[in-house]
C-alpha cells in the first residue's frame, strides 16, 4: 500500500480510504490511485481485512475424498450456497487421515473461515466425540462454526450444527421394495459397520427383515468398502457360496461392481438377480437396466449446511440438527424372483 501511495503521490491513509470506499475521495485522486494499483498489480491483504472483521470469511469443506460422485454433489451444494452469499468456498481432502483433518481444521480456524463443514461417516466412539467436541469449541471461540454433514451428532450441548439424512429409512425402503416383490434371499453389500453410514444402512435392512418376517441369514450380510471393486469382488464370491435372488448395495458404486460381476457370471439383471443401489448418482438412470436406487439429497445437504451455519445468529430459535429425507427411485433393475 505504501508503494501505491508513493506512485500515486498521496498518503497511505488516502489509498486505504479509496480502496475501502468508506470515505469520500475525489475522482481525480481515486483515478491516480487505481492507475497505481493496476501498474503495481497490488492485491488487498485479505488476511489483514479478516483480522479486522471487514471481510466475509470463507466456507471450508473438509471431506475424505473429492473424487466420489456423492461427495462431489455435497461440495456443489456448498459452493452454490456460498456463492449466493458472496462467500468463497474452499475444498480440502483428508484421505482418511485424522491427523490431516486436525491440521485442516486448525488451518481453517487460522484463516477465519465462517464455517468448517466436515462430510462423511465416522466411527462413533469416544475418540471421535472428543475430537469433534474440541473442534466445535475451538472454532466457536474463533467466531466460526463446526458443521457435521452425514456424521454422528455430539452428545450434550455443544456449538455445532448437524445436517444428516435418513440412512435407516432409505435402506428400509430399498429392502422393503425387494421383499414386497417376493424376494426372501437378499444379499446385503453393506459398508463398514464401524462407520455411522454403514451401521445405519444395515439397521434399515434388518428392520425390513423383521417387518416382513424374513429370517436373518449371516451369510447374506457382507460388509466392505463402498467401492466398485469391492462390489465386484463380494458379488463374485457370494455367487460361489450362497443362493440369493436380490442384492441391496450400500452405494451405487458398489451396485455398479455387482452388476459387472453378475454379467461376468452370466446372470441377467433383473431376470435372474434383482439389484438396488443407494445414492442415486446421475449414472444410475443411464445403466442398462436403469438402477433402482435410494436418492440422497446431497446438494441440499451442502446448501443446508451453509445456510444453517451462516444464518444461526439471525434465528431467534431453530434446530441445529436437521435430518433430510431420502426417497426410493424405482426403475428397471427389480422384478419378482423366478419361480
Question: What would you note in describing this structure?
Answer:
The chain has 339 residues and is an alpha/beta fold. It has twelve helices and twelve strands. It has helices spanning 2-8, 12-20, 27-40, 46-51, 69-84, 98-110, 126-141, 167-180, 196-211, 228-241, 252-264, 298-311; strands at residues 59-63, 89-93, 115-119, 146-149, 160-165, 186-189, 221-222, 246-249, 274-279, 292-295, 321-324, 327-329. The strands form two sheets. A six-stranded parallel sheet has the order 2-1-3-4-5-11, sandwiched between helices. α5 (69-84) links the parallel β1 (59-63) and β2 (89-93). α1 (2-8) packs across α3 (27-40) and α6 packs parallel to α7 (126-141). It starts with a helix and ends in a 10-residue tail after the last strand. 41% of the residues are buried.
Oligomeric state of shown chains? single chain
Low-confidence runs (pLDDT<50, min 5 residues)? none
Total DSSP E strands = 12
Count of alpha and pi helical runs: 12
First CA to last CA: what distance?
81 Å
Largest sheet: 6 strands, parallel
Whole-angstrom Rg: 26 Å
pLDDT average, as an integer?
90
Strand order of the largest sheet: 2-1-3-4-5-11
Give the SSE order as H and E letters.
Answer: HHHHEHEHEHEEHEHEHEHEEHEE
User: What would you call the structural class?
Assistant: alpha/beta
> What proportion of the residues is helical, as a percent range?
40-55%
Salient structural properties:
single chain, alpha/beta, 339 residues, six-stranded mixed beta sheet, elongated
What is this entry, summarized?
With 339 residues, the chain is an alpha/beta fold.
Amino acid at each position: 500500500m505504501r508503494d501505491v501511495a508513493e506512485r500515486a503521490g498521496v498518503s497511505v491513509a488516502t489509498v486505504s480510504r479509496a480502496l475501502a470506499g468508506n470515505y469520500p475521495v475525489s475522482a481525480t485522486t481515486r483515478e491516480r490511485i487505481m492507475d497505481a494499483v493496476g501498474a503495481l498489480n497490488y492485491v488487498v491483504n485479505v488476511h489483514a481485512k479478516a483480522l479486522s472483521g471487514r471481510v466475509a470469511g470463507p466456507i471450508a469443506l473438509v471431506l475424505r475424498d473429492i473424487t466420489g460422485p456423492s461427495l462431489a454433489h455435497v461440495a456443489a451444494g456448498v459452493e452454490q450456497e456460498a456463492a449466493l452469499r458472496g462467500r468463497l468456498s474452499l475444498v480440502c481432502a483428508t484421505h482418511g487421515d485424522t491427523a490431516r483433518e486436525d491440521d485442516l481444521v486448525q488451518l481453517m480456524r487460522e484463516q477465519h473461515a465462517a464455517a468448517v463443514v466436515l462430510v462423511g461417516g465416522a466411527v462413533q466412539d469416544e475418540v471421535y466425540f472428543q475430537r469433534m467436541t474440541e473442534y466445535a469449541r475451538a472454532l466457536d471461540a474463533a467466531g466460526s462454526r463446526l458443521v457435521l454433514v452425514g456424521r454422528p451428532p455430539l452428545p450434550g450441548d455443544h456449538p455445532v450444527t448437524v445436517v444428516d439424512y435418513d440412512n435407516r429409512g432409505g435402506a428400509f425402503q430399498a429392502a422393503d421394495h425387494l421383499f414386497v416383490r417376493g424376494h426372501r434371499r437378499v444379499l446385503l453389500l453393506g459398508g463398514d459397520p464401524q462407520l455411522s453410514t454403514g451401521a445405519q444402512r444395515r439397521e434399515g435392512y434388518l428392520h425390513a427383515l423383521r417387518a416382513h418376517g424374513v429370517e436373518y441369514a449371516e451369510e447374506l450380510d457382507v460388509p466392505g468398502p463402498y467401492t466398485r471393486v469391492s462390489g465386484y469382488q463380494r458379488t463374485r464370491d457370494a455367487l460361489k457360496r450362497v443362493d440369493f435372488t436380490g442384492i441391496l448395495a450400500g452405494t451405487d458404486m458398489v451396485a455398479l461392481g455387482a452388476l459387472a460381476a453378475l454379467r461376468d457370471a452370466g446372470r441377467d439383471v433383473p431376470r435372474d438377480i434383482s439389484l438396488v443401489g443407494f445414492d442415486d448418482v446421475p449414472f444410475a438412470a443411464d445403466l442398462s437396466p436403469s438402477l433402482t436406487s435410494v436418492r440422497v439429497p446431497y446438494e441440499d445437504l451442502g446448501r443446508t449446511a451453509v445456510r444453517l451455519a451462516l444464518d444461526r445468529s439471525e434465528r431467534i430459535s431453530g434446530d441445529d440438527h436437521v435430518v433430510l429425507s431420502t426417497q426410493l427411485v424405482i426403475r428397471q433393475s427389480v422384478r419378482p424372483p423366478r419361480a
